[in-house]
Write a structure and sequence with these properties.
It is built from seven helices and 13 strands. It is α/β, with parallel strands linked by helices. The protein has a single domain, classed as phage-related protein like fold (Alpha-Beta Complex). It has a six-stranded mixed beta sheet. Strands 1, 2, 5, 11 and 12 form a five-stranded mixed beta sheet that branches. A hairpin with a 4-residue loop joins β11 and β12. α1 crosses α4.
């Protein structure tokens, strides 16, 4: 978080508001938390090359007396992630601040005050909302990448069920990704349909499934809802939803979790998606005397990259 300001008072205020913006935005990071995260802020290049691992293919049938051979060579290619001006958001504080605080008759008086606590009481909601909006934009971009996955399961106009969920696991398994740490990130409607499918109180496989799954152990901060068939399943916010068609059928995905920064020496394993930050979130406050207002602006430069589209399965079901 970097800040730009014209006085020591505003510098402190910007830093505090910047922390608040990030704090408020964290619950939005659901799909985003499973991306490899890179920062190339301050580096010489304006883009980052990410390794793309290609499968060597099927080896063929072994024949007695014949050496092991394969027609497909192991290859390592790269994709390039180039951060752009992806989120520039501004909120203007007008004369209404006087009504909020009861102490200042104008924004000019508020900004000229050295009482940071009072300034915070007015500015905090603006910082929080802008921080949420910036992270919501990044989350929406990751979810939008679900539509680029080469394999999909499910049927439009038909609810998701356990069979569709298992079909996603199967398709991800036969793709043989480099790592097998899978997660599912689904739309709220898909989570709701699965939850109802699990809520069987007696009888058959479904009854056993309900008693053996952590269907009630949720974490609303990071979006975790339950573990189903061995897959940790999360819910992204409806505000970031991806729809499949004019009927607004929804899209979720099952994919490989990314950890660390493999290309930058940070260890970890490459996942299906990567989030590359080109510039730290920049938080600014500008006092506009002529308009008798204050502008609060967030500027963030980033890119979302899909490493291998076969390392994930889109799940398209009825809304």
């Amino acid at each position: 978080m970097s800040t730009t300001s014209t006085s020591q008072t505003e510098l402190i205020l910007s830093e505090v508001m910047g922390d608040l913006a990030l704090e408020e935005a964290r619950p939005r990071n659901v799909a985003l938390q499973f991306c490899n995260r890179y920062s190339i802020a301050g580096l010489g290049s304006k883009n980052l090359k990410l390794n793309r691992y290609d499968d060597i293919g099927v080896a063929g049938t072994a024949t007695e007396g014949t050496d092991y051979t394969t027609e497909t060579e192991q290859t390592l290619s790269q994709i390039t992630a180039t951060p752009t001006e992806a989120a520039v958001l501004m909120s203007q504080i007008t004369e209404d601040c006087a009504e909020l605080t009861g102490r200042f008759e104008s924004v000019n008086a508020l900004m000229a005050s050295s009482d940071i606590q009072t300034q915070m009481s007015v500015l905090r909601p603006f910082a929080s909302n802008l921080g949420r909006a910036a992270f919501e934009k990044a989350e929406t971009d990751v979810v939008a990448a679900f539509g680029n996955l080469s394999t999909t399961v499910g049927t439009t106009t038909v609810d998701i069920d356990l069979g569709v969920f298992e079909e996603a696991i199967y398709n991800l398994e036969i793709a043989e990704p480099q790592d097998r740490d899978y997660v599912a990130v689904l739309h709220p409607r898909q989570i709701s349909d699965l939850r109802r499918a699990l809520l069987v109180t007696s009888g058959g496989v479904a009854g056993v499934m309900h008693t053996n799954q952590s269907a009630d152990h949720v974490d609303n901060i990071n979006g975790f809802k339950f573990n189903l068939l061995g897959i940790n399943t999360y819910q992204y916010d409806k505000s970031a939803e991806l729809t499949a068609n004019s009927g607004d059928d929804v899209v979720g995905a099952m994919f490989v979790r990314g950890t660390g920064q493999p290309e930058l020496g940070g260890g970890g394993t490459p996942g299906t998606f990567a989030f590359v930050e080109g510039r730290a979130m920049d938080f600014r406050i500008a006092h506009v005397l002529r308009a008798r207002a204050a502008d609060v602006m967030v500027n963030w430069k980033y890119a979302v990259a899909e490493r291998v589209d076969a390392w994930g399965v889109g799940i398209i079901t009825d809304a």
